[in-house]
Amino acid sequence: PFEEITRHICGSKYPTLNLVYPYIQTLKNKFAPKSENSESYEAWITLIYGSEDSDTSNNSSISSDNEADIPSAGNRQQWQYVHRKLEDSNSVEYLSPVNCSGLLERARAAIFLSIDELWNSSNIIGLKASILDPQALKLLPFATTQEQKETEAQVRAELLLFENQMNISSSAKIERSIVPISKDSQDSLSAEL
User: Fold this and answer.
1) 59 vs 37: CA distance, rounded Å
2) Residue boundaries of the structural domains of the chain
């Protein structure tokens, strides 16, 4: 889904706000926990962040004042040794295999939880931009029905206010712009036409 969205957005000089919210919701739906696979939001939080029992033990070790618990970045000789090892580009070092079981599930859970945390509440300006764009209307189900109704009502109210302001200001401008034309001005206009 990232490639598809990236291709669509990069077709323009800059991504417009009206497309951002529908695309974020598309990503959120693609990575959401599937009930048919027995996945749940709570299970994913536990998968990524661990259980609450392990959090209490981690907090106690973090809050200790013993500086021996804090790992150091090493001394200068260690860094120079590592640097010399990296400079030897003719040697190949094979790393031991890593257990990758459940890696894709953890990645999917992390992506979903990040999107859910960062884009959980819709911005009213983004919703307005999406509602006013005819191309985004087919993508509009990203917002809840309540958000759609509230945004539409707010857009209608702002449009009515704008129309009232335009009617008042345009009528005032018209009255100010009506200036009697002198005979000399009429003759010069006729000559130019």
Assistant:
1) 33
2) 1-52+99-143
